[in-house]
Write a structure and sequence with these properties.
Rossmann fold; six-stranded mixed sheet
Length: 118
């Protein structure tokens, strides 16, 4: 899967996600740090990448309807420390069939993963 990590996620995720076979880039690598959410979304979609973020902006299905984009994973942890974010995201990508998430709106919490399809 081609994906982009938002600036609110640990860049240390590049290595384990790449090891799992994903093509990972980051907002930092594209000099998008500090840019507004619509700019990050546009860059992600323009590059055909699945976006991984903690930002609630991307949870609005009215403006990010499933099937109209390359996909988004919203990470919503109770206590999102960098370590907990790292562990949960790696766990999700190791255990879930993420290859079916193209075009989906996905939310991962501490306990579960919800996938909204077109």
């Amino acid at each position: 899967m081609k994906m982009k990590l938002d600036e609110n996620l640990p860049v240390d995720l590049i290595e384990p996600l790449s090891r799992l076979g994903h093509d990972v880039d980051t907002v930092l690598q594209e000099n998008l740090m500090g840019k507004d959410d619509p700019s990050v979304w546009k860059a992600s979609q323009g590059a055909g990448r699945f976006l991984v973020s903690q930002d609630l902006y991307f949870s609005d299905v009215r403006s990010h309807s499933p099937g109209t984009h390359h996909g988004v994973l919203l990470i919503r942890l109770t206590d999102p420390s960098r370590e907990d974010l790292f562990k949960r995201i790696v766990e999700v990508f190791e255990k879930e069939d993420v290859s079916t998430w193209t075009g989906c709106n996905v939310v991962a919490t501490n306990q579960k993963v919800r996938v909204r399809r077109a």
